[in-house]
Automatic annotation (TrEMBL):
The protein's name: ATP-binding protein
SMART domains, per database record: AAA
GO molecular function (one): ATP binding
Species, as recorded: Mesorhizobium denitrificans
InterPro entries in the cross-refs: AAA+_ATPase (IPR003593), ATPase_Atu1862_pred (IPR014588), HerA-like (IPR008571), HerA_central (IPR002789), P-loop_NTPase (IPR027417)
Amino acid sequence: MKVEIDMGTASGAKSAALDLEELLATRLLVQGNSGSGKSHLLRRLLEQSAPWVQQCVIDPEGDFVTLGDRFGHVVVDAQRTESELTRIAGRIRQHRVSTVLNLEGLDVEQQMRAAAAFLGGLFDAERDHWYPVLVVVDEAQLFAPAAAGEVSDEARKLSLGAMTNLMCRGRKRGLAGVIATQRLAKLAKNVAAEASNFLMGRTFLDIDMARAADLLGMDRRQAEMFRDLARGNFVALGPALSRRPLPLVIGPVETSARSSSPKLTPLPETPQDAHDLIFMPGADEPVRPVRRDPPPPVSTAAILAQLTKPKFEVPVPEQPVFAIIDEAEREAGIETVLREIIEDPDAGFRSDAVLYQDFLVRCRIRRVPGEPLALPAFRRRLAVARAGVAPDSAGGDAWNIALSLSENLPDDLQGVFLLLARAAVMGAPTPSNAALARAYGTHSERRAQRLIAYFEEKGLVVLRTDFHGKRILAFPDLGCETAPADPLADDGEGTAAAAE
């Protein structure tokens, strides 16, 4: 049976008819800024279709409860438990009663949870009760937000899942979603994309006008028309409305919302006793608790005197509460553990995080006193240890400058730089590519060559070769250079040369 309801007047003074049976199969999306007539449109749709199809309205502001006086809708107060709302929704489908779920008075998260429970009950009804239902959701961006907001992730997932089920899978269960939103950009795309019918009202933001034009198949240059739409004027498109974008004006309604747009009214005449009316309590005015006056402010001199007052000194115990840590013993234990890690042939090819865990375990085994090194300090000590110089035996201004320069390098490059700097300070031969690759934690000698090029780009070293083709690295900031050495020497030879 084909039922057409009158939505108002289309262009050319023709009646704007909406195919109700087609709407049940293809769903509807309404978009318009606040004050564009969006709620008026939904009310017109509900009033015209009330005799033909069961209706369920998700009403966050309590504007549609007046439908019960004229069309017999049962108002369901959402201030109930979620399980109770789910059971009520199942009975609504069983007995085919039109209802309005009033969410007024709840905060946003409570509204999302209540709407999710109610829609879940409609969706999970028994197959014998899958009668056609027009499910209207006002302010749909609250229940299917495009991005996470101030509500909890659990509430957002519940509400978004219920809205997705309504728009994506509800058709086979007889549920026809009609969602209205102030902004398309705030509505989840997977929910909006399931609607095949659109009614676009006035909007001003470029992103919303562009999305509205895309949904209606209009040119981007035509999107400016949405700024000029008057209140109650919409552009319709869809199989239930029109095959081409059709401007229409929504017709009048029989019921009205409990709240409406504010109207200017003339101010009353100022009474003679206005002062007494404001500052004197009325006879029937409830008595409220008196607010206590704040304490008088403290003078600056009193604050300074309090700050300069000698503090109570805690007596020093004769014996220390905690055991005194021998720093020399602690440093010796840390150096021993670092040396064990460096001597491991596979340590050069492990990440700093893995080596740090090994370091902590070894410190516990050796009972190194005091707090263990933090990860940044461990990386620094490991880089110095890989260079083969203990902090207490390095000495010299050149080596201290090298340590300072290495602090500006990435953690994985500090050990390689200090290895080269140590060879230059000691006048030792330049480490081979194989030795540098192992210090960097790789088997690739080409990568070692690129490390030297990187240091040269930073202005830390100057690379040159002698007449025999051997490599020499000069450090301008240190005032020294390495002895000539063959860069292609094998790993053992390069390591031995660097250790001399």
